[in-house]
Amino acid sequence: MTRPNFLVIMTDQQRADHLGCYGNDIVRTPHIDALAARGTRFDRFYVANPICQPNRAALATGQLTSVNGCRQNGIPLGLDATTYADVLRASGYRTGLVGKAHFQNVSPIPAPVPPAKGQGEAPPDPYDLARRSQRRGPEYAHEIRKNWVENPDREVPRPYYGFDHLRLCIGHGDQVEGHYSRWLKDRLDGAPDPRGRAAALDNTPGDAPQVWRTAVPEELYPTSYVGQEACDFIAAADEDPFLLLVSFPDPHHPFTPPGHYFDMYDPDDMPLPESFDHPTRARRDLPRHIQRVYEIGAEKPDAYWPFHTDAEATRRMIALNYGAITMVDDWVGRIMAALEQSGQAEDTVVIFMSDHGDYMGDHGTVLKHGLHTHGLIRVPLIWADPRRGAEVSALQGSAIDFAPTLLQSAGLKCPVGMQGRDLLAEDAADLPVLIEDSGLAFASDDGRTASRTLVHEGWRLSLFEGTDLGELYDLEADPHELSNLWADPAHATRRAEMIKHLAQRMLALRDTSLLSTHQA
């Protein structure tokens, strides 16, 4: 196997510990567990940014979000960015993406433009912005959901960030658009659209945020669409090696697993996290913009912001989250069967991962945004390569390491400026993980909401812009992050050491993608 195929299976908003192979003894994931049993399971793999669009950009480019520019949801990945798919495609691979991409914006909300600084007249357009190219226009509107509602037959120019074959799912739960819209419409054959809360079945128990019993049958649910499209791509494979990204929109909220998956897990059987009712649920040692995030979530619990909720609602969400995960696992089994039937299993590296996690009850909270607790930043990475044996890797890795690891597995060098490293190299160092976050500007009048987190040697440090407040946790002694040691005098030395490591890691991960055109 000189040039292996790559089958990359990704879920959306799934914690590492919501898999059997990561120690969960309730959720049933036998097919994903089987991949882990024959491959490398990374026990300490972290996001580069804890929300969808930025971390997917980091995975694709091997660059921090401060370098590739996709620092928050709402900033597309530049069309001039080099992705791992670009490199494989240029090297002769047949490339495909089925499911969620989220390389571009899904909402047409215009970006707020802050006033120009200083005194006097404002510079004329476009010189009122320091970077004139703002990644906007029709070439950056291919994932806007309402465009697909208006025209489900629309198409996207290829290659799309390196992918020649493209079948998009845009949205979550049963509220998905994209190429899926036309597929669903064809199969409904004139029947009413069954998507969304308005069309939900009347046997939904109670009325909870983010929860309804979908009227979409199992065979027409987005998970089934993505799984079947993946099987079809594999069956059509030819003599060229392939890269296929299978990107499921679930188990991201809203929690709407279809059919028997909705009732597969009893909420009463769902244990709550140890931190659920801990006093940390109502912390007061947080910056105002972090507190505001949870206030917005309480005001808009059916939106995308985190919110505190009660035990009953949290257990229901966990149970439904597990149902969605098991449905994905069932399709992983079908995809693996299609790979075996195609005769390509021994030539294919299979990877399972997620883009970021979910609080899922940690400190009484659900969803994402806000603090960088472990349920949000630690994600699964399983690397099943027929050329390697089974192992559990204790090496600490970051999303920026994914693209370099994949390219090295293909026997290809990494583009200049790609910042990660090969996690499977024999001499791979156990480096600190730097996590960036600039996505909370909506929660602040001045937009000063950036944070930086470092995970290193069993500790987590988080710094918040515009405040002396911070977080410091001993993850080995306090895995549930119940005791913030930031202001503890006994840990002042450790705090200073972690801040030094953070600064050093930020220096090491500076942008090197622009080359000097002339040398003295």
From TrEMBL:
Entry superkingdom: Bacteria
Keyword presence, tRNA-binding: no
Keywords assigned: Hydrolase
Pfam name, any one: Sulfatase
Keyword ATP-binding carried by entry: no
Sequence ranges assigned to domain Sulfatase N-terminal in this UniProt record: 4-105, 226-411
GO molecular function list: arylsulfatase activity
PANTHER family (UniProt xref): ARYLSULFATASE FAMILY MEMBER, ENDO-4-O-SULFATASE
Family: Belongs to the sulfatase family.
Protein name as annotated: Sulfatase-like hydrolase/transferase
Organism: Gymnodinialimonas ceratoperidinii
